[in-house]
Amino acid sequence: MKKDSHPIPLDVNRTQDKSSIHTEFTPEERAILRDLIRGYVLNDQQDSHGDNLYQRVVTLEKGKKVRKTIVINEEVGALLDSFADQQKFNKSDLIEIAILDLIKKYK
């Protein structure tokens, strides 16, 4: 997606003292922004294999859950914490996807 594909004109209203600017987006501008954000999120979440992690997380089966305790290397745990926080994903969802991929690969 080109950066200039959706130029967004702002409806700028200055306050009486003209020291600050209040911007309001029109419904059309909000729609453009929403599309840009969706495109950014979806493109940003794709890994080198073309998988769309964001799409996989949001479409993950939300059936009955069971609590399992796992013990992992401290460094791996820190990487998982950091990645989940950065991507705004639930760690349980990421682990579930990883386990499903592992089983599918070695089944």
Biggest sheet statistics: 2 strands, antiparallel
Rounded Rg: 21 Å
Number of strands: 2
Strand content: 5-15%
Shape: elongated
Distance between the first and last residues' Cα: 38 Å
Total count of helical runs of at least 4 residues: 4
Indicate the structural class. mainly alpha
SSE ordering: EEHHHH
Low-confidence stretches: none
The percentage helix is: 40-55%
Average pLDDT, all residues: 75
Report what the structure shows.
The chain has 107 residues and is mainly alpha-helical. The protein has helices at residues 27-44, 53-58, 74-87, 91-106, and strands at 11-14, 21-24. The longest helix has 18 residues, at 27-44.
Question: Topology of this structure?
Answer:
Elements: E1 11-14, E2 21-24, H1 27-44, H2 53-58, H3 74-87, H4 91-106
Antiparallel strand pairs: 1-2
In short:
With 107 residues, this protein is mainly alpha-helical. Helix content is 50%, strand content 7%. It is built from four helices and two strands, in the order ββαααα.
Which terms would index this structure?
single chain, 107 residues, mainly alpha, two-stranded antiparallel ribbon, 2 strands
